[in-house]
């Protein structure tokens, strides 16, 4: 089966909104053997929508659109496509009733706005795709020649939910035989740069087990995406499993999960399994580390809290960093990072204290401590450790990389043997980012 995707919205054309819908649709459809032959974006004009969809129908006879199903005057998708099929618009009172019920359930005052009634107008003869994630129903419109258009909302959360709930089962039912699929598996690594990962993989660096391998570097680390093409679903699963095992045998220690796994979630799960409580102390990241951790549902049973300590006086008063240590080493130093971590843990009776202090830039660097210099401190089970690294990128990237590196430092420490009880331990300065 061949399908074209049309994403609709002036905000997409103007670059104010990134089109993530088309990418998600393409991945999900390829995984069930549907070939995406073209993706295009058009504005909110009725003529532009009609032209894009009509041309796509002429080429493939199957089109999926996203966007333009809302209640406002710029939502022209339904009417534009209904006109292509020669269908009138009909009002569905059951949709109005459902919208009114949802409006009350949200605790909104007054009556449902009249503009929302527009969402109950559906092309005659269309199949309604239920939206359990928002207000705009989706639409499946098909003609006597078997040509069809599936219309989904543009809000990514709603589109993804409706795709899984309603559209994929419909499309899958129309895929015949045992089609070739395109399926990917992504291994997430951190703490090792792209070139270093490639060197480690050696002969596996290109096409492990006959599966394509792509390197996707970013501030979180390097994702290794394996992609199987030209196989049916069963054969693709076997090939990806073999390729994944081959990669893990080499880079396993740097891998923290698959797909969209968040390192913060892995750290929290590890701490939770050990019954350990965490506190963070941050300078240059300004709460970014704490935000990463507390964005994970259920983090409150592991994270006690944190301190944003930009000023030296705050470091001294709240984290009990020694003034002489600050004067002798500077705020961006391993001794200060260690005292920040230990001070936070002792002040809160946490099992683990994790700290970050650095120079995020663009100013403030020196020959000895260039922009991107970041020091990390870790207090765990009564012992303190530290590490220094230089992060690359602009201010935002340095801060993001620093938060990720701190999480990686903690996860590595949790996997290591407990240090001797009679000494302070300073971790070797292994690179955290390339």
Structure, explained:
The protein contains 14 helices and 17 strands. The model is unreliable at 419-434 (pLDDT under 50). It is α/β, with parallel strands linked by helices. The two termini are 43 Å apart. The strands form four sheets. It has a six-stranded mixed β-sheet with strand order 2-1-3-8-7-6, sandwiched between helices. The chain has three domains: 2-172, MoaB/Mog-like domain (Molybdenum Cofactor Biosythetic Enzyme, Chain A), CATH 3.40.980.10; 181-258, Alpha-Beta Plaits (2-Layer Sandwich); 263-415, CinA-like (Maf protein, Alpha-Beta Complex).
Task: List the topology elements.
Elements: E1 2-8, H1 10-13, H2 21-30, E2 35-42, H3 46-60, E3 62-66, H4 77-84, E4 89-91, H5 93-105, E5 121-123, E6 127-129, E7 138-142, E8 148-152, H6 156-172, E9 181-189, H7 194-201, E10 212-218, E11 221-231, H8 233-251, E12 255-258, H9 263-274, E13 278-282, H10 288-294, E14 303-308, H11 312-319, H12 323-329, H13 334-348, E15 352-358, E16 373-380, E17 383-390, H14 395-415
Parallel strand pairs: 1-2, 1-3, 3-8, 13-14, 13-15
Antiparallel strand pairs: 4-5, 6-7, 7-8, 9-11, 9-12, 10-11, 15-16, 16-17
Helix pairs in contact: 2-6, 3-4, 9-14
């Amino acid at each position: 089966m061949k399908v074209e995707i049309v994403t609709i919205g002036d905000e997409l054309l103007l670059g104010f909104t990134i089109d993530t819908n088309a990418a998600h649709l393409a991945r999900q459809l390829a995984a069930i053997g549907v070939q995406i032959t073209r993706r295009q974006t058009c504005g909110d004009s009725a003529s532009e929508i009609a032209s894009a969809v009509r041309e796509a129908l002429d080429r493939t006879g199957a089109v999926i659109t996203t966007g333009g199903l809302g209640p406002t005057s710029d939502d022209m998708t339904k009417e534009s496509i209904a006109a292509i099929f020669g269908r009138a618009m009909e009002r569905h009172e059951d949709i109005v009733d459902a919208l009114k019920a949802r409006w009350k359930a949200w605790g909104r005052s007054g009556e449902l706005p009249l503009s929302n009634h527009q969402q109950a107008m559906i092309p005659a003869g269309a199949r309604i795709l239920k939206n359990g994630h928002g207000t705009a129903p989706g639409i499946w419109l098909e003609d006597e020649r078997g040509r069809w258009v599936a219309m989904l909302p543009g809000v990514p959360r709603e589109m993804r939910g409706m795709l899984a709930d309603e559209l994929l089962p419909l499309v899958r039912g129309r895929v015949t035989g045992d089609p070739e699929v395109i399926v990917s598996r992504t291994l997430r690594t951190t703490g090792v740069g792209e070139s270093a990962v490639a060197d480690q993989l050696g002969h596996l660096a290109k096409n492990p087990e006959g599966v394509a391998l792509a390197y996707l570097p970013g501030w979180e680390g390097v994702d290794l995406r394996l992609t199987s093409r030209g196989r049916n679903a069963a054969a693709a699963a076997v090939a990806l499993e073999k390729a994944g095992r081959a990669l893990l045998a080499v880079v396993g220690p740097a891998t923290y999960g698959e797909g969209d796994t968040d390192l913060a979630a892995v750290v929290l799960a590890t701490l939770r399994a050990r019954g350990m409580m965490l506190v963070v102390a941050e300078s240059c990241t300004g709460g970014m580390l704490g935000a990463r951790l507390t964005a994970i549902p259920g983090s409150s049973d592991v994270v006690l809290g944190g301190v944003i300590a930009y000023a030296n006086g705050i470091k001294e008063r709240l984290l009990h960093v020694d003034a002489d240590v600050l004067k002798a080493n500077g705020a961006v130093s391993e001794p200060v990072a260690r005292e920040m971590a230990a001070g936070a843990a002792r002040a809160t009776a946490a099992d683990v204290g994790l700290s970050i202090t650095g120079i995020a830039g663009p100013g403030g660097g020196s020959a000895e401590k260039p922009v991107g210099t970041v020091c990390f401190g870790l207090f765990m089970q009564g012992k303190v450790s530290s590490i220094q690294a230089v992060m690359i990128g602009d201010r935002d990237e340095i801060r993001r990389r620093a938060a990720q590196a701190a999480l990686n430092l903690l996860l590595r420490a949790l996997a290591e043997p407990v240090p001797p009880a009679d000494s302070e331990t300073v971790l070797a300065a292994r690179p955290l980012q390339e």
